[in-house]
């Protein structure tokens, strides 16, 4: 009995091998691409005071959408509001 050909998702390995062995971009090219990307930032926060029952979460969500950042916000059982905001560093700093 002849051995079965190796198959990867219906294609023979010999046909896929050249695609799987493509050259990896150099470290210099990767570093250049990373240097042009914006620095991302993530901040966890907790707000104390009268922040529940005054639409603080809704206000925070609206400001985040206007600014172009993402995250979450929730009331806690201790009467505070906790959240996290993520995005480009300059936008996170502005919110």
TrEMBL record:
- The UniProt gene name for this protein comes to ACYP2
InterPro entries the UniProt entry points to: Acylphosphatase, Acylphosphatase-like_dom, Acylphosphatase-like_dom_sf, Acylphosphatase_CS
Is the Hydrolase keyword given for this protein? yes
Which Pfam families does this UniProt record tie to the protein?
Acylphosphatase
Known catalysed reaction(s)? an acyl phosphate + H2O = a carboxylate + phosphate + H(+)
What this protein is called in its record is Acylphosphatase
List, from the UniProt record, the residues annotated as the active site of this protein.
57, 75
UniProt domain Acylphosphatase-like: residue ranges: 42-95
Q: What class of enzyme is it?
A: hydrolase
What family does this belong to? Belongs to the acylphosphatase family.
Renumbered to this chain, the signal peptide range is none
Print the keywords alphabetically: Hydrolase
**SUPFAM superfamilies attached here?**
Acylphosphatase/BLUF domain-like (SSF54975)
Question: Single GO molecular-function term?
Answer: acylphosphatase activity
Annotated EC:
3.6.1.7
